[in-house]
Amino acid sequence: MDAGSDVAGLPYPRQQARTRRFTLGRARSFRVAPDGSRVLFLRSAGPDDAVNRLWAYDVAAGQERLVADPHRLNRAADEQLSAEERARRERLREVGGGITSYSTDNDLATASFALGGRVFAVEVRTAEVIEVGVVGPAFDPRLDPTGQRVAYVAERELYVAELGGGGRRIVGEDDPDVSWGLAEFIAAEEMGRQRGFWWAPDGQRLIAARVDAFPVETWHIADPAHPDRAPREWPYPATGTANANVTLAVFDLQGGRVEVDWDLESFPYLAGVRWGPGGPPLLTVQSRDQREVRILALDPDTGTTEVARSLTDDTWVELIPGSPDWLDGGRLVTIEDTYDGADGTRKLLVDGETVSPDGLQVRRLVSATHDTLWFTASQDPTTTDVYELAVRSGQLTCHTDGEGVHDAVVGGDVVLVVSSRLERHDPVAVVRQDGVSIATIESLAARPNVDPQVRLLELGERGVRAALLLPSPGSGVAADARLPVLLDPYGGPHAQRVVAAQAAYLTPQWFADQGFAVLVVDGRGTPGRGPVWERAVHRDLATPVLDDQIDALHAAAELEPRLDLSRVAIRGWSFGGYLAALAVLRRPDVFRAGIVGAPVTDWRLYDTHYTERYLGHPDEHPDAYERSSVVGASGALVDAAPVPDDGVARDLLIVHGMADDNVFAAHTLRLSSALLAAGRPHAVLPLSGVTHMTPQEVVAENLMAIQADFLRRSLAQA
Fold it and tell me: Left (φ > 0), alpha (ψ -120 to 50) or beta: where does 370 sit?
């Protein structure tokens, strides 16, 4: 069956909107049982179906089974989401529906999930589903490791319900500013911590976070399209202002409570909690300036903590997925940055001793069991491989081929490897047992009707990684035509666009087929190349980032003579939108047009954890904020260059979702005001009801067409 047959004939903008950027029908959220007997995953029924179902692959039987289907539970169309669930999906950029997350017991024998605020548990082997009686609407249900009970949050309070019936509130307070068991905004958006409570391995106790948002400034998100509606209040910790107060307590099922003690004044950020079978609970706490991280071992009986390891850095200490963890025998596993080599190296350590080889940039710790570490790492920033390390012997095995972007989930003798490559549009999930591929988890995602032809390049003196896409032979563009150039970056920390995976270039290829040469550039500040490279943006998010885009553009034009440097535009969203505004305003000698999507224009209006990591506290480093912002503290444009007197206009199209709770629409409104005051023509496209992501099909489709039309007009031959 052609999984994409229902959408294959659609124009690409509609196709990518209908399929939610080709994610619908793709298997995801994999888990592997510790004994290797089964793999669980989520997948919808096809390329235009947003309702995710829970599936199992049985290794011995060699077949997939449907475990839980929202349609059969009459919950497929239920979109009555709690405010907490809407916020969770926004933080994760979740565009699907149905079962969007699930938890399991230790053996993957039972799974639990929420639909419309109701909690369900399913016995994986028989697919028998029961509804767990809960106070609602329930949020983030998590089975205890023994599979006997489920904990969840409702109305900012933490509850536990027995699967066999009966439950009770564990903790809550009659205070609208206080929540238990929830992750605060910056933890979910910036630290990668989506959770607010954690089960003990024996299922008898929980660690829960108490969040007091009273100190946080309240911002308001109005809906101008509906002036009769009151603005939504949103606690937002803008840089330089107060954060929420976050503490922890340990609760047992008999009603006992122990407060967790650490130096909150010096380490106010709770970046992570891990409570597994390998050792005592581990807390990762961070100073506000992010120059020190302490990994604390917690005694859950007394609430006392001791420092297991302290990490310091003169700029900032990076938080790395999967780290820290315990190996058997109480050996502490961490991922840490060193400054050896030109770009530095991110290394894997056990009890402070480096165990990963030189030349590898470690990306993520996948698992730490017995004496074995599984992790992902890069030798080249465009690729990521899966490695297995036997710690005592030092034997290192690479389980992928150095081509593409790979990740893994491990359980027993089974490894599930998810691989993305330049020659395939869809990631492939392969089940391996004892090193032998035994199955492929089927993808039902659509096949895009563009075929990216990507040239991966190293450009300029710094060897900046870039991808160049030209019009395809069937696009109707003459093979020898001079081409206007479109830069299409993200360009900032914590995100790569230049990777050896075809899915990253679908939309760039569509723009190329409209008659452009599209150049995607990852400059300084982007991940995968080393800590020195990443920290080049310290105290200045503008200059090195923009310089690398321009250097790469000129170097690419030397390699490809079809690039017309008199007609250059740039488009981007979020940090990429910020970069697009910088480019047109500060280097109008290079850029004729920019599409500025959801931009941060004044870094004083962005959140504490992200912004202060790179720029410091605004009271201590006001020059860093002024240097890095498009709009300064005075409300005027910062370092905007005069427009060259060449008779060619410099065009800006600014796009922003009016319901954005991450990059508020105030950024765009202040930019527009500053542009108007400076006499700079521009257009603003407000997206009513749209957040920082644009999952709405009509919006996503038409926005692409509007951008293409804007670029054609702006880059027309003079």
Answer: left
Kindly indicate the confidence band of residue 5, based on its pLDDT and cuts at 50, 70 and 90: low
d(CA 713, CA 649): 11
Query: How far from chain centre, in Å, is Cα 292?
Result: 23
Q: Which residues pair with 242 in a beta bridge?
A: none
pLDDT tens-place string over residues 234-278: 999 999 999 999 999 999 999 999 999 999 999 999 999 999 988
Q: Which neighbouring-strand residues pair with 110?
A: 123
Backbone angles phi, psi at 614, to 5 degrees: -95, -35
Contacts of 226 (CB under 8 A, 6+ apart): none
Contacts of residue 693, Cβ cutoff 8 Å, sequence gap at least 6: 90, 93, 95
Vertex 146, ends 141 and 151: CA angle to 5°?
A: 20
Copy the structure tokens of residue 518: 């599209």
Radius of gyration of the chain (CA): 25
The first and second tokens of residue 452, run together, are: 């990216």
For tokens 């390329």, what's the residue?
Answer: 47
**Predicted pLDDT at 75:** 66
Angle subtended by helix axes 575-586 and 543-559, to nearest 10: 80
78-91 per-position pLDDT tens digit:
557 788 888 888 88
Residue 51 forms beta bridges with which residues?
A: 97
Tell me which residue has tokens 């020898």. 480
Q: Measured between alpha carbons, how far is 179 from 196 in angstroms, rounded to an integer? A: 9
Provide the token pair at 237. Answer: 């910790």
Q: Which two tokens stand for residue 700?
A: 């996503």
β-strand pairing of 197-199 with 205-212 = antiparallel
Give the residue carrying structure tokens 């995710």.
Answer: 52
CA separation for the pair 623, 633 (Å, rounded): 10
Q: How many CA atoms lie within 13 A of 477 on its CB side?
A: 19
Give the pTM. Answer: 0.95
Model confidence pLDDT, tens digit, residues 537-560: 999 999 999 999 999 999 999 999
Exposure on the CB side of residue 410, measured as CA atoms within 13 A: 20
Tell me the residue type at 506.
L
Task: Give me the amino acid identity at 59.
Answer: V
Given its phi and psi angles, is residue 95 left (phi above 0), alpha (psi -120 to 50 degrees) or beta? alpha
Q: Is 340 exposed, middle or buried (0-12, 13-18, 19+ CB in 10 A)?
A: exposed
Helical pair 697-714 and 506-513, crossing angle rounded to 10 deg: 40
d(Cα 68, Cα 74) in Å, to the nearest integer? 12
Taking the CB of residue 402, how many other CB atoms lie within 10 A of it? 13
Handedness of CA 522, 525, 529, 532 (dihedral sign): positive
Of 656, 655, 672, which Cα lies nearest the Cα of 664?
Answer: 656
State residue 92's pLDDT score: 83
Query: What's the CA gap between 32 and 26, in Å, rounded?
Result: 17
Give the C-alpha separation, 5 to 24, whole Å: 13
Locate the DSSP E strands across 93-172: 97-98, 103-104, 110-115, 118-123, 128-132, 139-143, 149-154, 157-162, 167-171
Element (H, E) at 86: helix 83-92
pLDDT at res. 76: 57
Order the strands of the 517-522 sheet from edge to edge: 454-459, 464-469, 517-522, 483-487, 563-573, 593-597, 651-657, 683-687
Identify the bridge partners of residue 139 per DSSP, sorted by sequence position: 153
